[in-house]
Recover the amino acids of this structure.
């Protein structure tokens, strides 16, 4: 009887040691998991900070370049603003115009000329931010087709020339005649005039 009790006691001791070992392993796992959670939370904070810094840099770079383009064409220009917001758990970018502290939705409350100039600025900004850099060539089809007035169009031609020169960016642009030919020739390295007669196109170099 005593022998059987001792055997059961030894069995219980063995089971207890096994449970103690399991508990120790669980405690070790708990410490590891808590450390992993702490590391993940710290990494998340770093990622969020990097994302915020990147967004601020994008906001400045894109807003500044587009606003400069608008200021070079118009006397009382809008400023383009880029704002990152969280919607449905995702980051989205809101683009709007601002003038004298008031916000304007570009597609509803501003002229097409302003949108054309801002879009040109956006294309140049996105090209300059691309890594690795895309080929330094932009091909544009009537980028300022809604821009009205001789002077704004003349300024737009000069603005394109300055952008091309300062960024080393080749710009191939199709455009109708909204300014004098002398202005176009002065603002471009090469100008090709396409005329059509009897459904036959003829190209002349100016």
């Amino acid at each position: 009887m005593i022998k059987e009790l001792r055997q059961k006691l030894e069995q219980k001791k063995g089971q207890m040691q096994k449970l103690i070992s399991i508990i120790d392993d669980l405690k070790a796992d708990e410490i590891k998991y808590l450390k992993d959670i702490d590391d993940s939370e710290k990494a998340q904070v770093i990622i969020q900070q990097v994302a915020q810094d990147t967004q601020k840099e994008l906001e400045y770079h894109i807003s500044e370049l587009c606003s400069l383009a608008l200021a070079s064409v118009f006397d009382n220009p809008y400023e383009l603003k880029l704002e990152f917001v969280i919607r449905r758990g995702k980051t989205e970018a809101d683009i709007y115009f601002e003038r004298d502290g008031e916000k304007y939705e570009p597609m509803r409350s501003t002229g097409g000329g302003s949108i054309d100039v801002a879009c040109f600025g956006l294309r140049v900004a996105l090209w300059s931010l691309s890594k690795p850099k895309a080929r330094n060539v932009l091909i544009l089809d009537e980028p300022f087709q809604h821009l009205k007035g001789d002077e704004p169009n003349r300024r737009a031609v000069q603005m394109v020339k300055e952008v091309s020169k300062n960024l080393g960016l080749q710009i191939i642009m199709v455009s109708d005649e909204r300014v004098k030919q002398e202005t176009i020739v002065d603002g471009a390295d090469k100008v090709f005039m396409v005329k059509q007669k009897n459904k036959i196109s003829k190209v002349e170099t100016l």
